[in-house]
Design a protein that fits this description.
Layout (H helix, E strand, L loop, with lengths): L4 E6 L3 H12 L3 E7 L3 H11 L3 E2 L2 H5 L6 E4 L6 H10 L3 E5 L6 H14 L3 E4 L6 H12 L5 E9 L20 H4 L1 H12 L3 E9 L10 E8 L4 E7 L30 H6 L4 H11 L19 E6 L2 E6 L2 E6 L3 E5 L6 H13 L10 H20 L3 E2 L7
Parallel strand pairs: 1-2, 1-4, 2-3, 4-5, 5-6, 7-10
Antiparallel strand pairs: 7-11, 8-9, 8-15, 9-10, 11-12, 12-13, 13-14
InterPro entries: Gfo/Idh/MocA-like_OxRdtase_N, Gfo/Idh/MocA_Oxidoreductases, GFO_IDH_MocA-like_dom, NAD(P)-bd_dom_sf
Organism: Alicyclobacillus fastidiosus
Protein name: Gfo/Idh/MocA family oxidoreductase
Length: 393
C-alpha cells in the first residue's frame, strides 16, 4: 500500500480553514505539522491534531517529518517559502498567486523543473463543480465552438478587514492580484489557456484603501475567443443579487437590505490599523473543520456566462442552465467532491506522477500571474499588452 503524503501546513488563516477538510478527507494525505506566527493558533492546532507546530515556515520546511508543504501565507511570502520547501526536498501546494513578479515566477518554474518536485498552484475556483461541468459541456462539442466567456463579480472585498500588505499592490495586494487570479484562471481554463493579449483599466477610488479595488479586463485568445473579467470590490452592488443570493462558497450571501447594506464599508471606515487587524484576526480565526457543516449550494464566484455557436451556459443554484437552440435545460450537480477536494486530488496525482496530473502546475501559475500583471500594465499604459508565457490546457 502506498504511504500517504505527509503534509505540513504553513499558515492557519482563512485559506487553510477552507482547505483543511479536503486534506482530512483524502486518504492519500496525512496532516503532519503546521506553522503560524500566532501562538494561539499553534496551540489550538496541536491540541486538535497532536502534530508538531512551528513559529515560522522555515522551520516547517526543514522538518524531516513531512513530504510536502501547503503554503497559505500572505502573497508576498510565497516565493521565498516555495524555494525553502523545494530546497528541502518538499513538494508544494501554494495558494494563488504564487508570486508577485514574472521574474519570481520564472524562478519557481525553473526550480520546480530542476528538482523534479511537484508545484501546484491552488486556483481553486476553476475546480468549482459548476465550472468543471461547463468545461465538460464545451468539450463535448454539443453547442459548437466556444466564442465568449465572461466573469463579473461585484462584492465587498476591499472593505473586508485587511492587513496593510493586502492593500499594497507591490506586495500582491488589491483585487487584481487576489481575485483576478481566480477570474483569469476560470476564463483560461474554459477557453483553453492561451491568451494572446490583454487590454484593461483598473480603479483606485478610495484614498484610504490605496490599491486596486476594481478592474475591467478584455482578454483575447490566440484562437479569437473573447473574454471579459469585471471586478468591483467597493461594497455597493453585489452580484449575488443576480445569483439567487448565493455567495462565493455556496452559502447564503448577505442581502442588500437596510440593515446590511454597505456593512463591510461602514465597519472599517475611520478605524485604526490596530482595530482593523483585530477584526482581521477574528475573521481568520482558526476553527476545527468538524464545526463546519458545508455549503448549501454550489459555489458562485460571481456571474459566469459562456457563449457558443449554438447556446449559452450559466450556473443555476444547484447546477447549470444550458440555453441551446431548442430548449433551456438544467443539469443538477453534486456538491461533492468540492473544489478543494479536487485541488488536493490533483496535488496527490502530481506527487504520484500520474499521466493526467499537474494542470495547475508552476507553468500554469506563471501564465496566470502574467495575465494579472498585464492587466496592471495595460491600465497604466492605456495600451494592449501582448503575452509571452501562456500555456495550453
Amino acid at each position: 500500500m502506498t504511504q500517504p503524503i505527509r503534509m505540513g501546513i504553513a499558515g492557519l488563516g482563512t485559506a487553510t480553514r477552507q482547505m483543511l477538510p479536503a486534506f482530512l478527507a483524502n486518504a492519500n494525505i496525512l496532516v503532519s505539522a503546521a506553522a503560524t506566527r500566532s501562538e494561539e493558533k499553534r496551540n489550538a492546532f496541536q491540541q486538535d491534531y497532536g502534530v508538531p507546530v512551528f513559529a515560522d515556515a522555515e522551520q516547517l520546511c526543514r522538518f524531516d517529518g513531512i513530504d510536502a508543504v501547503y503554503i497559505a501565507t500572505p502573497t508576498e511570502l510565497h516565493t521565498q517559502q516555495i524555494h525553502l520547501a523545494l530546497d528541502s526536498g518538499k513538494h508544494v501546494l501554494v495558494e494563488k498567486p504564487m508570486a508577485v513578479t514574472l521574474e519570481e515566477a520564472r524562478g519557481i518554474v525553473e526550480k520546480a523543473q530542476q528538482s523534479g518536485l511537484a508545484v501546484i498552484v491552488g486556483h481553486s475556483h476553476s475546480f468549482d463543480p459548476p465550472i468543471q461541468a461547463i468545461k465538460d459541456v464545451l468539450d463535448s462539442g454539443r453547442l459548437g465552438p466556444v466564442r465568449m466567456i465572461h466573469n463579473w463579480n461585484y462584492n465587498d472585498w476591499l472593505y473586508r478587514p485587511r492587513t496593510k500588505e493586502e492593500l499594497d499592490t507591490t506586495q500582491g495586494g488589491g483585487v487584481t492580484f487576489r481575485q483576478g487570479s481566480h477570474q483569469f484562471d476560470i476564463i483560461r481554463y474554459l477557453g483553453g489557456g492561451v491568451v494572446r493579449s490583454v487590454r484593461a483599466m483598473t480603479g483606485r477610488w478610495d484614498p484610504a484603501r490605496p490599491t486596486e479595488g476594481s478592474h475591467v479586463a478584455y482578454l483575447e485568445f490566440e484562437n479569437g475567443l473573447a473574454a471579459t473579467a469585471v471586478y468591483n470590490g467597493y461594497d455597493h452592488f453585489h452580484t449575488s443579487e443576480l445569483t439567487w443570493d448565493i455567495g462565493e462558497w455556496g452559502g447564503q450571501a448577505r442581502r442588500a437590505d437596510d440593515s446590511h447594506y454597505g456593512m463591510s464599508r461602514k465597519r472599517v471606515k475611520g478605524i485604526s490599523e490596530t482595530e482593523e487587524m483585530s477584526l482581521k484576526q477574528k475573521r481568520s480565526q482558526y476553527q476545527n473543520p468538524a464545526s463546519d457543516h458545508g455549503p448549501i449550494h454550489s459555489p458562485f464566484f460571481g456571474l459566469t456566462v459562456v457563449s457558443c455557436d449554438h447556446g449559452d451556459i450559466r450556473q443555476s443554484p444547484n447546477g447549470l442552465l444550458i440555453y441551446s437552440d431548442e430548449e433551456v435545460e438544467e443539469i443538477t450537480l453534486n456538491r461533492v467532491p468540492t473544489a478543494h477536494d479536487l485541488v488536493v486530488r490533483e496535488f496527490v496525482e502530481a506527487v504520484r506522477k500520474r499521466d493526467d496530473a499537474s494542470t495547475h502546475d508552476a507553468e500554469w501559475g506563471l501564465a496566470n500571474l502574467e495575465v494579472c500583471l498585464a492587466v496592471l500594465e495595460s491600465a497604466e499604459r492605456r495600451e494592449e499588452v501582448l503575452l509571452k508565457h501562456q500555456v495550453p490546457w
